[in-house]
Amino acid sequence: MKKIIIAVLAIAIVISGCKTMNKQQKGTVAGATGGALIGAAVSHGSIWGILIGAAIGGTAGNLIGKKMDQQAKELQQAVPTAEVQRVGEGINMTFESGLLFKLNSFELNSSYEGDLASAAGVFNKYPDTNILIEGHTDDTGKDEYNQALSEKRAHSVTAFLISKGVDPKRITEKGYGESQPKYPNDSEANRAKNRRVELGVYANDQMKKDATEGKLQ
Predict the structure, then answer these.
(1) Structural domain boundaries in the chain
(2) Element (H, E) at 68
(3) For 56, left (φ over 0), alpha (ψ -120 to 50), or beta?
(4) What is the pLDDT of residues 121-176, one digit of tens each?
(5) For the whole model, what pTM was predicted?
(6) Across residues 202-215, what is the average pLDDT?
(7) Please, are residues 11 and 34 in contact by the beta-carbon 8 Å criterion?
(8) I want to staple 62 with a disulfide (CB 3.0 to 4.6 A). Which of 28, 117, 140, 179 is the partner?
């Protein structure tokens, strides 16, 4: 375990210290240095861990990173209310539950369906990626209720994307209830941030194959 922690810290130092690197190049370094090792060091099921762990690194990883840079840019433009981050050779997209859903409900807000439809349009433009959808809550209420709500909210987003033409074979959905907070549940502002739906976008096998063979456009 100590070796894993040391390796993660070393990679983080290398990446943070390379101020002249762009996001694509940083993703390549992370993948080449030990993406799978970083993935093992974070909590099971974490999108961050999955994205870093999926990195293949090297020249192929650089090509994937370039493609993800463009997709991330388009997602941010399509849904300015969402947080879009490049992680490794993938993308982490976070939606606030307060915008997506009615209070204590898994029914999508009709006013936000336009933003989700815009995201679906970008996903359809890049069919060689997989999409992981995770639902999360704060610590208010019973564990069982929060777990069920997080699963239903993830499924609602999945169902909507599928209705807009996203191939269901590309999508995996999970709910984690209150078990994976991003912030301490010590204030309403932080609890609001923990009530979220996160999407992880990463290369599928075909994209990795094309990148490895130098065919990725």
Answers:
(1) 2-212
(2) helix 58-78
(3) alpha
(4) 999 999 999 999 999 999 999 999 999 999 999 999 999 999 999 999 999 999 99
(5) 0.80
(6) 94
(7) yes
(8) 28
Q: Are 161 and 118 in contact (CB under 8 A)?
A: no
CB burial of 110-144 (b: ≥16 within 10 Å; e: otherwise) equals eebeebbbbbbebbeebebbbbbbbbbbbeeeeee
DSSP string for 180-212:
S-SS-SSSHHHHHHHSEEEEEEEE-HHHHHHHH
Instruction: Give CA separation, 93 vs 37, 48, 76, 123, in Å.
Output: 23, 11, 9, 12
28-70 confidence digits (pLDDT tens) = 444 444 444 444 334 434 788 889 989 999 999 999 999 999 9
CATH level 3 topology of 2-212: 60s Ribosomal Protein L30; Chain: A; (3.30.1330)
CA 157 to chain centre: 14
